[in-house]
């Protein structure tokens, strides 16, 4: 990958009247995809910076001390329904087919989540078929007139008992808020089924980059027009560095010095550990909805990567308020504050905000790739129009 020092970047930016065509802040999916497209598709000169010491953003993976491939920022499973996003990423990686399955620890049992026929039969000691399960859930459901919150949407569908067993504790831990204080879109991510499909996702494409995410990013970014500068915070950049456009994939409120107040983000503390056995748990992720357990889930990476190794590495996720911003928090008051920042952003056309933090959206990886490709298309069209004038 074409890494440079700050001095080289400054020198290169002064070679031409306008400096770099683009400075992109954040080398996650948003910034890296856009950098690749601008450099390869439009022949632009791009400086991509990140304050971390690596590219890949939250999807970064690496070999830990034991030699096991782990994800530093928690489990990342690629899934999408969009063929064009798979086609695009396939330029930089081969894939390993992988369908994600998750179990929830409920008392002494580990039950499939999303709730499905097997979950219901095991939890209630029954032997229902899908039609009976549907009737059973209907009898449990407690209709809510106006469905607004993450509590409403679940209680309306499956009733309070199952809601409390699988959703309330997990959500309170994950977000530091009761589900009744969160937008319905949050728990709506997890469906309920009455068949025995126990996959976490039902997307058409579900797979993992064969050699990992970091290897995919390195190939994506290995382009002549891209310079990469790591361990560099935008806020502390040398003013001598010249560039024509800025694309900012960090938190939008931070860019504006929090002048309208702080946008809340939820953080996580990751506890990484390696154990001396070949396999620790039955599936890649086990969720702990019980509020008395301080972590939300344990991930065992070898299930995701297919790696064979005599030991196995795990990550425990402990949600917290302070730390790196991992999750925008979907609720009306935050959306309102974001829109006030967006209005400020709209006044500065030379700066574009992108990605999960830049647009304050609870996006999956494929959605961020789609957002970056859409921005590229827009920039490409603008360039063509300019050329015609
Ligand atoms: P990020 O990956 O956050 O990248 C932003 C980058 O900008 C960071 O590297 C940061 O260091 C840098 N930056 C910020 N501010 C500055 C600054 N001022 N100066 C320099 N650099 C800066 N998605 C899925 O599709 N499947 C999953 O299974 C999945 N699991 C997830 C699990 C967890 C625990 C988390 C937190 C997210 C998960 N996601 C998953 C979502 C996925 O991580 C995001 O969709 C994706 O990584 C967002 O890419 P991004 O480029 O927008 O942001
Ligand atoms: N959720 C839950 N119990 C679970 C799994 C998920 O209550 O066993 C809720 C929780 O609020 C979580 C949300 O559903 O934040 C979305 O879950 P997902 O697995 O999509 O979260 P992510 O992988 O983005 O952290």
Written account of the structure:
With 389 residues, the protein is α/β, with parallel strands linked by helices. Among the domains are: 6-59 and 211-263 and 328-388, 3-Layer(aba) Sandwich (Rossmann fold); 114-187, no CATH class. The protein has 13 helices and 17 strands. Strands 8-7-13-14-15-12-16 form a seven-stranded mixed β-sheet. The chain has a five-stranded parallel β-sheet with strand order 10-2-1-11-17, sandwiched between helices. Strand 7 (102-106) and strand 8 (109-113) form a beta hairpin. Helix 2 runs parallel beside helix 13 and helix 5 (130-140) packs across helix 6 (150-175). Flavin-adenine dinucleotide is lined by residues 25-31, 49-52, 57-59, 73-77, 233-235, 249-250, 268, 326, 355-357, 363-366, 368.
Topology of this protein?
Layout: H1 6-15, E1 20-25, H2 29-42, E2 46-49, E3 61-63, E4 69-71, E5 78-80, H3 83-89, E6 95-97, E7 102-106, E8 109-113, H4 117-124, H5 130-140, H6 150-175, H7 184-187, E9 205-209, H8 213-221, E10 226-229, E11 243-248, H9 252-255, E12 265-275, E13 285-287, E14 297-300, H10 302-305, E15 312-320, E16 327-328, H11 332-346, E17 351-353, H12 355-358, H13 365-388
Parallel strand pairs: 1-2, 1-11, 2-10, 7-13, 11-17
Antiparallel strand pairs: 3-4, 5-9, 6-9, 7-8, 12-15, 12-16, 13-14, 14-15
Q: What labels would you give this structure?
A:
389 residues; 7-stranded mixed beta sheet; flavin adenine dinucleotide binding; UDP-galactopyranose mutase; EC 5.4.99.9; single chain; 36% helix; Rossmann fold; UDP-GalPyranose_mutase_C; 17 strands
């Amino acid at each position: 990958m074409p890494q440079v020092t700050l001095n080289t970047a400054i020198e290169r930016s002064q070679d031409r009247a306008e400096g770099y065509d683009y400075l992109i802040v954040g080398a996650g999916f948003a910034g890296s995809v856009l950098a690749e497209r601008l450099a390869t598709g439009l022949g632009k000169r791009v400086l991509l910076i990140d304050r971390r010491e690596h590219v890949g953003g939250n999807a970064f993976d690496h070999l830990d001390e034991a030699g096991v491939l782990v994800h530093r920022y928690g489990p990342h499973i690629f899934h999408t329904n969009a063929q064009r996003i798979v086609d695009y990423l396939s330029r930089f990686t081969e894939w390993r087919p992988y369908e994600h399955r998750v179990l929830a620890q409920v008392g002494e049992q580990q039950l499939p989540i999303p709730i499905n026929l097997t979950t219901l039969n095991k939890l209630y000691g029954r032997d229902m078929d899908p039609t009976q399960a549907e009737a059973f859930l209907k009898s449990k459901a407690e209709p809510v007139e106006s469905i607004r919150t993450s509590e409403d949407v679940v209680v309306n569908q499956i009733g309070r008992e199952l809601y409390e067993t699988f959703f309330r504790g997990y959500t309170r831990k994950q977000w530091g808020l009761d589900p009744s204080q969160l937008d319905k879109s949050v728990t709506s991510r997890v469906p309920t089924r009455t068949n025995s499909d126990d996959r976490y996702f039902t997307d058409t494409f579900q797979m993992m980059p064969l050699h990992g995410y970091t290897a995919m990013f390195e190939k994506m970014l290995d382009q002549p027009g891209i310079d990469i500068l790591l361990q560099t915070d935008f806020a502390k950049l040398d003013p001598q560095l010249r560039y024509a456009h800025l694309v900012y994939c960090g938190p939008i409120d931070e860019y504006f010095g929090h002048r309208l107040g702080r946008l809340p983000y939820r953080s996580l503390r990751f506890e990484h550990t390696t154990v001396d056995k070949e396999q620790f748990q039955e599936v890649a992720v086990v969720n702990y909805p019980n509020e008395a357990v301080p972590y939300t889930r344990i991930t065992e990476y070898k299930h995701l990567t297919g790696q064979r190794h005599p030991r196995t590495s795990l990550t425990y996720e402990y949600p917290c308020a302070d730390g790196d911003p991992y999750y925008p928090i979907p609720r009306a008051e935050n959306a309102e504050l974001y829109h006030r920042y967006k209005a400020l952003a709209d006044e500065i056309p030379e700066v574009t905000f992108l990605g999960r933090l830049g647009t304050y959206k609870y996006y999956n990886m494929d959605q961020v790739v789609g957002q970056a490709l859409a921005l590229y298309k827009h920039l490409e069209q603008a360039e063509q129009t300019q050329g015609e004038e």
